[in-house]
Amino acid sequence: MDVEAAREDLNKWTLAKIRLGFARLIYLASTRDYNTGRYYHDGLAFQFSEAVAAQALSDAHQEVFMDLALSPLKDLVDQLQAYLRSVGAESDDVIRVWDRLEPYRVAIPTESDPLTTSFFLANVKIALAIVRSRERAGR
Amino acid sequence: MIGTWAFLLFGLLLLALVILLLQRAMPSANDSEESSEEAETQAPVYAQSFPQRLVDRLFGSEDWEFIAKQESPRLKRLFLRQRTTLALSWLLAAREDATKLIRVHSAAARKNSRLEPLVEFRVIADYVAFQMLCLLIALVIWLRGPVTMRRLVGYADALSERLYEVITRVLPAELACENSKREPAPPGSQRARGR
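^ inputs. structure came back:
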């Protein structure tokens, strides 16, 4: 019950302000400690408890990931293009970095199954190639 | 005369394939110590849960139609290569799950004094049919990619579901109960077993 309330709070006060699915994914992944995999959120932990906040963040992360990973490829391309434009840097540079370093790998929830993870990674690679060709054509 | 020989040869090949599949499904004599048998009998009988949406995306045509519109041969090749790899991974996991299931069943059946031959025959028939269908799906994927195979995959899915149901129905109550307790319902999955 507490976790549900924490999820509602998270959706209402934080995630509602983040419009793009990719941005939500990156935000939720950034609340997770790289070494321990534990999720932290000061505001939520203060209002509920550390454990409840961590569970709410983990659930939200998994949900956002699944929505994005299993969305039609066309939607994923649109989402990715909008996100790369919203970053505020030259989209060419961002695409190059995403292509080489694959920073989106750290945005995958720990609990996701290997096949869905591979599916997501493969789709992002294709989406990047399409966004790149769209950006070139747009110039 | 040639037709009869070809028919016989095909029958023998089919028989060899069935025996091979059954041998792979049954635990070998080398690992038949009590402890491993115990572990096998108590192993959970649930499959790896992949969301139904993933299977629909993987074997559906929507993404392929989008890629075809891009008019880039390089993209098409990349897409088909990736999806073929993913589809074969799914198929491998599905076959492994079915084999795991039949092993748990045969371990439990060896301890059961009241076996029902008809049910046992049905389990074996379903398992062999499922494995044959998987081989057929693998062949089609290998030849023309996984796109627009949703119906065939759906049929394999239904067959594995039936196998799962028949086996869990004849498993000892405590094992079936334990397994149902261990079965997680992943968020976003449409049914408990998931695939």
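Chain B touches chain A at residues 48-51, 53-54, 57-58, 62-63, 66-67, 70, 72, 74-75, 78-79, 82-83, 85-86, 89-90, 93, 186-188 (CB under 8 Å). The radius of gyration of chain B is 19 Å.
thumbs up if we can close this ticket
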